[in-house]
Amino acid sequence: MRVLVYGSGQLAQMMYLAAAPLGVIVSAVDVVTETVVNPISKKATGVPLHRAIEESNAITVEFEHVPEHLLLDADKSGKLYPNVASILAGADRVREKALLVKNNIPNCEYLLIDHVDQLDDVVERLGEKVIFKASRDGYDGYGQWRISSASDLVNVRKDFALLDLKKVPVIAEKMMQFDREISLVGARSQDGQIACFSLAENLHHEGQLHVSVAPITQLTEALQKKAKDIFETLATAMDYVGVLAVELFQCGEELYVNEIAPRVHNSGHWTQQGCSTSQFEQHIRAVLNLPLGSTELIGTSAMVNIIGCTAFSRDLIGIPDVHLHWYGKEVRKKRKMGHINVVAKSHASLGKKLKQLIEFLPVEYFPKLESEATRLENEKN
């Protein structure tokens, strides 16, 4: 069996590695050159794209910002999973908000801005603390503006005057006073089978994910069920096939959807060592309509992103149950170079292990790690 992935970054690479033991061959598409490449070496395979589509049993994506003409070409084959509408909902915040509203999914209060004069009503409607998000091509903190008082709108107005807001509108969201950011990664197969992983707790720095911990601390069955109900509603409404990530704000016992990602997701990388089936294998299973794998936990896990740095000691893999995943990229500021998965028996022991890990890392690139390690170390479970 063959799977063709649009996008040739680390997610395609990890799908390739997860698919190999199943006897599934994964190829990737460099969406800039429209060339079929090997997901590991990135070298062209010599297979024309039209033939790769014909020879594939399933076609999928590693990110939602695939050029639309490529998605439509892939869709004609009848083998694209998830479907085009689902991918576009993840790529466009206007479509995403419409999806949430249509399905009565709680989300942040918002306004659609497609003209700079609409900024006049923002503070009155949403309050003084607002985050503005470009409806397309914004991720990892890019394409975002924040205000904490009405006076901050002066600079936002200047920036927006330079944008084509009709072409790419902006979503203005009321900043929520949430307790924490969590996410649920799950999968739905072609025949409607659904399997969700445990909730993960996510720590961000400058708009970028730095650490995920799963399961979340103080996890209750009610909270997991509430998140799963949201996942099932969205996945069923979209007739979704594959792995889907739902990012959530927790406010007390209530959950509000922040974003959806129609693909394998950074906050699910911990599943590689922390679960019976990784999110990458699960995605391959789902798009090929194979039985979904068990999402049973192997332990308590943390995923630590390596961002913009290569200067750390590989000796960190000498710590028991610490695993390095390297992407082979050229270093660049804010670029995800790899990640580290850590597995332990409890949150407290996970905290101790993260303290050990810190000794091998340049702390300036891991600003959330020490405080998170201390928090987990004090957990009683």
TrEMBL record:
Recorded metabolic or biological pathway in which this protein acts: Purine metabolism; IMP biosynthesis via de novo pathway; 5-amino-1-(5-phospho-D-ribosyl)imidazole-4-carboxylate from 5-amino-1-(5-phospho-D-ribosyl)imidazole (N5-CAIR route): step 1/2
Against PROSITE patterns, the record matches this protein to: ATP_GRASP
Q: Which InterPro entries match?
A: ATP-grasp, ATP-grasp_carboxylate-amine, ATP_grasp_subdomain_1, PreATP-grasp_dom_sf, PurK, PurK_C, PurT/PurK_preATP-grasp, Rudment_hybrid_motif
UniProt keywords (A-Z) are: ATP-binding, Ligase, Nucleotide-binding, Purine biosynthesis
The source's domain of life comes to Bacteria
**Would the keyword Magnesium turn up in this protein's UniProt record?**
no
Q: Which GO terms describe its molecular function?
A: 5-(carboxyamino)imidazole ribonucleotide synthase activity; ATP binding; metal ion binding; phosphoribosylaminoimidazole carboxylase activity
Q: Which GO terms describe its biological process?
A: 'de novo' IMP biosynthetic process
Gene Ontology cellular-component annotations: cytosol
Binding-site positions, ATP:
R93, K133, G138, Y139, D140, G141, Y142, G143, Q144, E181, H204, N258, E259
As its record notes, the protein acts as a catalyst of: 5-amino-1-(5-phospho-beta-D-ribosyl)imidazole + hydrogencarbonate + ATP = 5-carboxyamino-1-(5-phospho-D-ribosyl)imidazole + ADP + phosphate + 2 H(+)
Which residues does the UniProt record annotate as the domain ATP-grasp? 97-288
Enzyme Commission number: 6.3.4.18
Q: How does it assemble?
A: Homodimer.
Q: What is this protein called?
A: N5-carboxyaminoimidazole ribonucleotide synthase
Annotated source species: Glaciecola nitratireducens (strain JCM 12485 / KCTC 12276 / FR1064)
